[in-house]
Write a structure and sequence with these properties.
5 strands; about 150 residues; alpha/beta; Nucleotidyltransferase, domain 5
């Protein structure tokens, strides 16, 4: 095998690779949105207990206390007694659903793209029928995901 050239060993060009990865990291860090997931609860509201270790997602909230149902982002409240009947209906339920629709429409298209998420904050001493009726009124208005907020250990 006379005349055969010796192959040059392959070398990985590290400088351009480091440049590309640096630009990628900068792009990802600058483009990431960090927001606090704080929640302001109405005074006197007692959250139920949960063993789950989920994080709170940044989403619109509906609060249901012993006296009222509220949508804090719209500063809208209504008495909880309306939801204590078996099949609530009437102008007050329609008004509540209109407010939920207003809340959904106020969200940015990016937040609505993957489905509307709602943080549902309810007092632990509320009857099940109240929670069910409020959820039923909310779900009619294009809310896809409902996250129940509870306290942990």
């Amino acid at each position: 095998m006379v005349g055969r050239k010796k192959r040059k060993e392959f070398e990985l060009p590290l400088a351009p690779l480091i440049d590309v990865f640096t630009i990628l990291v900068i792009y990802l860090v600058v483009g990431t949105y960090f927001a606090p997931a704080d929640m302001v609860l109405p005074p006197g509201l007692k959250l139920p207990f949960s063993d789950s270790k989920e994080d709170i997602e940044l989403a619109t909230q509906v609060h249901v206390s012993a006296t009222q149902v509220s949508i804090p982002s719209l500063q809208y409240t209504m008495p909880v007694e309306i939801f204590k009947t078996k099949n609530p209906s009437g102008p007050q339920i329609a008004s509540f659903q209109a407010q939920v629709t207003k809340m959904v429409n106020a969200l940015s298209p990016a937040m609505r793209q993957n489905g509307v998420t709602l943080n549902f904050v309810a007092d632990k001493d509320l009857p099940y029928v109240v929670i069910f009726n409020v959820l039923q009124a909310v779900r009619v208005r294009n809310v896809d995901n409902v996250l129940f907020i509870a306290t942990g250990s």
